[in-house]
Amino acid sequence: MRITGTADGRGRRTAVLATTVLAASALLLTACGSGDDDSNASGGDGKITLTVADYGQFGYKEAGLFAKYHELHPNITVKEEVTANEQDYYPKLLQQLNTGSGLADVAGVEVGRIKEVVDTQAAKFADLSKTINVSDWVPWKEKQATAKDGSVIGAGTDIGPMSLCYRTDLFKKAGLPTDREAVAKAVEGGWEDYLKLGEQYKKKAPAGTYFMDSSSAMFNAVVSSDSQQYYDASGKAIYKDSASVKQGWGLASEAAAKKLSQGLPQFTDAWTAALRKGTVATVACPAWMAGQISTNSGDAFKGKWDISHAPGTTAANWGGSFLTVPKAGKHVKEAGDLVKWLTAPEQQAAVFKAIGVFPSNQGAYQLADVKDAKLPYFNNAPIGQIYADEAKSIPQAVLGSKDGVIKDAISTQINNMEQRGTKPADAWKAATEAIDKAIG
């Protein structure tokens, strides 16, 4: 699932990943599910259209799921309304919720926004605990969408187990190991080891290339590996004293000072151009990022990218979204049934097969299309195994209502350190002032 810029720096692209689509039709035949699922969404005698509002790339069209749903339910047509940039999508969603008009039947919500939505808007969404089996999801995922009264306002789509994507050809030219196990060993000590590897790369880097795309991306990866990030369990913003934020900021400052990064904010035009030109050697790589890289790098670099375990031993989750059903939608019952079907194991496996985003429904992990999955574009990296290994030890992170605002402000200042040469102390001061003003 991909965006061109989001609350937590993650993304999903609207382009089709032809290089990673592995004949999803066979899976979709089994994805019809049980008779119960197939009979749930009914519009009565008349035909209806269900609208799904989302951002970037959720993968449903690429996996053929909307067309399949229409085959299963001829009276229902599903229309997707896509906003490329989540930062444009979310304010519009809030406005629609506040006015009660213009809402789609199904609305996507990014993980960086879900806490705010749960705390301030839960009453405006249908309780999906009456529709889905909440225990099917990884426990921390559905807790993120659970309100104080126990209602569940969102069904989890993907999660973002962290890995490291790297260019084997550039590593070889720079004298670095290329085998994915050897790369994992080189950074097993954590993100500090990752920067040390970057310094080695820089000594023999092929002309015009950089070790990483963005220090702000690395920052997000570091923070996402900790259970306590920007808020504590009481709901107090603690980002100024957070150990993970301090670590991430220090590493990002070091990377910027040593010019280990190309300094490109992810999902910008300059960033996608860098992937297309092949100037980036590594990318902090949550599961959904593989689709972004293969889409933008194109056929010229097929087989030259590979995937290894992320630095360190602490698993990280970066990203993920939810499908919600606004109560003001025109077809709440049918929309809930569609959400249940789209987030069932077979359909999540189909999306994973189509665009590489990792399921949050645990039932999908036992399906061969997830468990045995490999990515031809990434040198046949065993992504099902890699992501599952990472997902096992992901901590249950404390989310805050303004996580997205805090991440955006800090990432902006990291970008300024890289692009404008802003001193770390000045950048941190600007970030904290912007955050304090925004969150009160």
Short description:
This protein is 43% helix and 14% strand. The chain contains 19 helices and 9 strands. Strands 1, 2, 3, 4, 5, 6, 7, 8 and 9 form a 9-stranded mixed sheet that branches.
Plain-language structure description:
The chain has 19 helices and 9 strands. Helices cover 43% and strands 14% of the residues. It is an alpha/beta fold. α18 packs antiparallel against α19 (424-439).
- The total count of strands amounts to 9
Largest sheet: 9 strands, mixed
Spans of at least 5 consecutive residues whose pLDDT stays below 50 are 1-43
The total count of helices amounts to 19
| Average pLDDT level | 89
Sheet/helix structural class = alpha/beta
Helix content: 40-55%
**Cα end-to-end separation:** 32 Å
Shape: globular
Cα radius of gyration in angstroms? 21 Å
Keywords:
alpha/beta; 9-stranded mixed beta sheet; disordered N terminus
Topology:
Blueprint: H1 25-30, H2 35-40, E1 48-55, H3 65-72, E2 76-83, H4 86-99, E3 106-110, H5 111-121, H6 139-143, E4 154-167, H7 168-173, H8 180-186, H9 191-203, E5 210-212, H10 215-224, H11 243-257, H12 269-277, E6 280-286, H13 289-297, E7 305-309, E8 317-324, H14 332-342, H15 345-355, E9 358-359, H16 368-371, H17 383-392, H18 403-419, H19 424-439
Parallel strand pairs: 1-2, 1-3, 5-6
Antiparallel strand pairs: 3-8, 4-6, 4-7, 4-8, 4-9
Helix pairs in contact: 10-11, 10-18, 18-19
